[in-house]
Amino acid sequence: MSINTIINAATLAITAWSIADSLGHKPEDPDKQVSVSLFTGIAPNAGGSVPHLAVWDEGGNRIGQYKGDANGHIDDNGSKSFTISPTQNGGHQATPEYLLVVMQETDAICLSGLAVSGNGHQWTWTGDMGYTCGAQWYPSKRTIGTSNIPIKCVWMDSDHSNGIIAKGLSLHMPSFAGDQGLVDQYKEDQRRLCQNSARMTFQPEPVVPDSIPRFFKHAPEYDDTGALKKPNEGIDRGTRAYPDGTNFHIHDTKKRRHARDMDPHGFNVTGVKNIMPGHVVISNLDGHSAKEVCEHPNSLGPDFVNKSEGIFCDMDTGKWWPLCDEKTGTDEACFDLDTKTMKNYKPGSVQTRNEGHPVPQKEYNSHEEW
Q: What keywords is this UniProt entry annotated with (predicted)?
């Protein structure tokens, strides 16, 4: 996992509020109410069911909850803001330092960012943080503020269909303030970000809306640079995004023909790679890599092309192939962008690229270009 993602996310956090502000969402009582904004990825099937939300203060006292609507929906390239009143702490003004997001309905979402504000504080988290720590992800063309760097989205679903592991996400929002001192500490040792249950955990079963996430025993303290005074406090597990003991063998038996075995840092994860076999995404964005999408153990989504890279990713197998151009030899299999099929091989043969992989037979009923 690249530590550059952490740097990007921290830089973007400063400007992410321009998106939340553009929603025009203002709590009726901003002195007491909490605002939570969710942003799905601009990616295929990134939109889905509205999740349940819960917030706690610094001491782990629940402030309030938002009950996800069974009929609620967030669109692809969508965003929604929610107001949470302090109904569970006696109506007292409190700072929302902990957030729990739980999927209750069965339409998965790919979350690219969220923003939390209340009691004069505001924080932002992006999907790049989840990607950095090993969560299931897909490229998105969403950018934040004035940045032209696309941020990734991460998957959550209540019934784990399509091999999606996480049903929820718990976050300690001040841990994503983006201060340089804090970012440097995460770069120095990613366990501080990724193996810290109180800081960030992609929750599998049995998380439910009334679940209580892990809290820090003592509220983290920071110096003038934003760095943690005790940077290793809270490191408590051997796995990264997901907690120890997670069922990494979740799969949807109806889609087993797209299954493959993944190995994220020593764990055998049985799940699907391609969740939209009749669709292909063609990207012109420099921040994307089709080779990375193919080779990364936790990528999840349709086939992917990056034009500038000259690579086509077959998500059914997790193998990539070159795009056809004037340099491609007549005996080299390649992906033709015009016909969106593989070319330069004999039908029925087992002509291969490296490592002896058969040339895939591809046929699409839809595509999109970024």
A: Signal
